[in-house]
Amino acid sequence: MNKNLALGIDIGGTNSVFGLTDEHGRIYFEESISTRTCSTPEDLVDKIHARIKDVGQLKNIVGIGIGAPNGNFFSGTIEFAPNLPWKGIIPLARLFEFRFKTEAILTNDANAAAIGEMIYGNAKDLKDFVTITLGTGLGSGVIVNKSLVYGHDGFAGEYGHIRVVTDGRLCGCGRKGCLETYASATGVVRSIDELESEHKATSKIMGLKTPGAHDVFRLSQGGDIFCTEIIEYTAKTLGNALADFACFTSPKAYILFGGIAQSGQGFADKVKEYMEESLLDIYKDKIEIRISTLHDKNAAVLGASSLVWNQLNEHE
Fold first, then answer.
1. Dist CA 249 CA 266 (whole Å)
2. Domains parsed from the chain with CATH numbers
3. End-to-end distance of the chain based on CA atoms, in angstroms?
4. Whole-model pTM above 0.85?
5. What secondary structure does DSSP assign to 42-56, as a single string?
């Protein structure tokens, strides 16, 4: 095959996924490597390079896109990511460029998801939107006039760490009351222990040894009242926060991505209802809540590789 391809890489604390895509979002090759078995970032770069060489595609790569926790677009570095085995500031983009002899673009994983949504997903028709990733934490990628907002230092758009409850739940960032401690999958699990309800004692969720967010949604669909209350609380907290965040960039839509979003339209509708109740009048009935359409694809690879195609298109 002789075709221009982008190498998309999603760096995770447990595994790093990588793949080759064309500009239409077709994935020609994908694989994963255990991040924790790579003692140094150079080790990861070498292993990925070896696999791409094995499949004979080194000469077809026109660029590399990398999504990573605490990724800084401006510097191409990962900075003090707590869940990665390498500490401090890692010049990962430069390491890939040196090994592959082509340009590498790095940003945080939520930003990569936003670009991927704009090119391949449910935001193709939008110029102004925010992607909200609802996973272990809560990430966000802010798009204004089809451009990602980075801020002066590359770290703009950390909606998950805007505090929504005064002196609330302790967050992994060290502060209290951050949105991700309430509206992420981890936040849903914390609500099992922390929410009070007359229906708690009889809830089936209390009988599970290690319940997850998916169990809360599953039991709610089966009529479990306490689990339904948890979902309502989560949707209300997120909806109220999105109403406030609308004042920042006045997005046309919020696009929900991740495990919680995959629970279905019902949760998105609840978030929309609570958001509308709390919106400033000038924003009412103007903002959509959409669900990502990339769930059935390898969104990590697509999001990362889309950084390459987006930059190439901007330079045309």
1. 26
2. 5-115+297-315 (3.30.420.40), 125-291 (3.30.420.40)
3. 25
4. yes
5. HHHHHHHHHHHHHTT
Q: What angle, rounded to 10 degrees, do the helices at 265-278 and 225-249 form?
A: 50
Let me know how many helices (H) and strands (E) the chain has, helices first: 9, 13
What is the C-alpha to C-alpha distance for residues 13 and 296, in angstroms, rounded to an integer? Answer: 22
* AA identity, residue 38: C
- Exposed e or buried b per residue across 236-275, where buried means at least 16 C-beta atoms within 10 angstroms of its C-beta: bbbbbbbbebbeebebbbbbbbbbbbbbeeebbebbbebb
**pLDDT tens track for 161-200:** 999 999 999 998 889 999 999 999 999 999 999 999 999 9
**Which amino acid, residue 40?**
T
Q: Which two tokens stand for residue 97?
A: 């460029």
The single-letter code of the amino acid at 122 is N
